[in-house]
C-alpha cells in the first residue's frame, strides 16, 4: 500500500469509500441517531474543487482510503483543516488511517501551517479517541474557522448523533 496525491481517475472512488463507513456508524450509534450521517457525501470532483489536498491510499491500483485536507481562510488567516478521513471498513485496523493522518500532517507542514485542525465525534472510538492517540488535542473554545465549522455541523444535525468536538495538532516545522 502506498500513499499518493489523488489523480483525476481516483476521484470517482472517494464518495463510495466515505459512504461505506455509514454501516459502522449505524452499528455504533443506532440507525435513528446515525441518520444525519447517511446522506450522500460530496463527490471526489466536488472535493477537488476546494482548495487543499487529497491523498489516497493505493493498494496495488485500488483506492482503499483517502484523506482530504482543506485550506480554509478566515479573519485570522489560512488554516489547514482535516475535512475527511475514510478507509474502506474491510481494510480497517491495518494502520491505513494512521498513515493517512500522518500524510495530512505533512501536507499541512509543507504548506507552511503551524497546526492541523479537525472536528469529530468525541466518543466514537475511530473518531475522537483515534485522533487523540494521533496527537490531536481538544480545542475547548473554538474560534474562527473552527467555530464556523462547529456551527455548520449543528445546523446539519450532527450534534444529534453524539457529542462533537474540535481538535488541533501542532505541526512542527523541519
Automatic annotation (TrEMBL):
Task: Give UniProt keywords alphabetically.
Answer: Acyltransferase, Transferase
Q: Cross-referenced Pfam families, in alphabetical order?
A: Acetyltransf_1
Q: Which InterPro entries match?
A: Acyl_CoA_acyltransferase, Bact_Acetyltransf, GNAT_dom
Q: Where in this chain does the record put each N-acetyltransferase domain?
A: 1-156
Superkingdom, natural source:
Bacteria
PANTHER family from the xrefs?
ACETYLTRANSFERASE, AMINOALKYLPHOSPHONATE N-ACETYLTRANSFERASE-RELATED-RELATED
Name of the protein this chain belongs to: GNAT family N-acetyltransferase
* Organism this protein belongs to: Nocardioides acrostichi
Please spell out the taxonomic lineage of the organism that makes this protein.
Answer: Bacteria, Bacillati, Actinomycetota, Actinomycetes, Propionibacteriales
Amino acid at each position: 500500500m502506498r500513499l499518493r496525491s489523488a489523480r483525476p481517475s481516483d476521484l470517482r472512488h472517494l464518495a463510495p469509500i466515505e459512504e461505506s463507513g455509514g454501516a459502522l456508524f449505524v452499528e455504533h450509534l443506532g440507525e435513528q441517531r446515525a441518520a444525519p450521517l447517511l446522506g450522500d457525501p460530496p463527490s471526489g470532483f466536488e472535493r477537488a474543487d476546494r482548495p487543499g489536498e487529497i491523498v489516497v491510499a493505493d493498494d496495488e491500483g485500488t483506492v482503499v482510503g483517502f484523506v482530504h485536507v482543506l485550506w480554509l481562510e478566515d479573519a485570522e488567516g489560512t488554516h489547514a483543516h482535516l475535512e475527511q478521513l475514510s478507509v474502506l471498513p474491510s481494510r480497517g485496523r491495518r494502520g491505513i488511517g494512521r498513515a493517512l493522518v500522518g500524510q495530512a500532517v505533512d501536507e499541512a507542514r509543507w504548506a507552511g501551517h503551524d497546526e492541523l485542525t479537525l472536528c469529530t465525534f468525541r466518543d466514537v472510538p475511530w473518531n475522537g479517541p483515534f485522533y487523540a492517540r494521533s496527537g490531536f488535542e481538544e480545542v475547548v473554545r473554538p474560534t474562527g474557522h473552527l467555530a464556523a465549522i462547529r456551527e455548520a455541523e449543528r445546523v446539519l444535525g450532527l450534534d444529534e448523533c453524539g457529542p462533537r468536538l474540535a481538535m488541533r495538532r501542532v505541526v512542527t516545522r523541519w
